[in-house]
Amino acid sequence: MYYHFYVRNGIVYIPTMGKMDQGFYRDVEPVAVVSASNTEAMRQALAAVIARGNPIVPMLRRREWSAPVVLKYAGVRSWSAFEQGMSLWGLDDKNGKFALIGKRKQSNGATVDDPERTFTFSPGSTTEDVIEKIIVILQEAARKV
């Protein structure tokens, strides 16, 4: 399983990650939008997206791509506008082994994993443990952005 979390202007955007048949993921509805300062709302939104998992979605051809789903929730028209002041995080769940991975943008525009902002959970961590740590990290990211 894989999930994305965006932090921008004190708001956390938690889209459902649809899995395409080639093993790639893309943001799809529903999207939870919560204030980073609202711990309980974040807890509920994270639990819901993890419980939902990664529904299968069709692979899109380049001409079928639409604007990223989070843009309408952020009230911006373009990805470049959304990226301004945005912090991106991924949660990787490989058979119950979780890692929260901070992302950074390279000079060529590609987004890559940032090993300095990666937190690997100890084996046996529960989903609740993972959610609590994600909340702490995303709230800290919101204060820094």
Short précis:
This protein has 145 residues and is of the alpha+beta class. The protein has helices at 39-52, 70-74, 79-83, 127-144, and strands spanning 2-8, 11-19, 25-35, 86-94, 97-105, 111-120.
DSSP strand content = 35-45%
* First-to-last CA distance: 27 Å
Count of separate structural domains: 1
Number of strands: 6
Global Rg: 15 Å
Output mean pLDDT: 94
Largest sheet: 6 strands, antiparallel
Question: In CATH, what is the homologous superfamily?
Answer: NMB0488-like
Characterization of this structure:
The structure is a single chain. With 145 residues, this protein is an alpha+beta fold. It has one domain (2-144): NMB0488-like (NMB0488-like fold), CATH 3.40.1590.10. It is built from four helices and six strands. A six-stranded antiparallel sheet has the order 3-2-1-4-5-6. A hairpin with a 2-residue loop joins β1 (2-8) and β2.
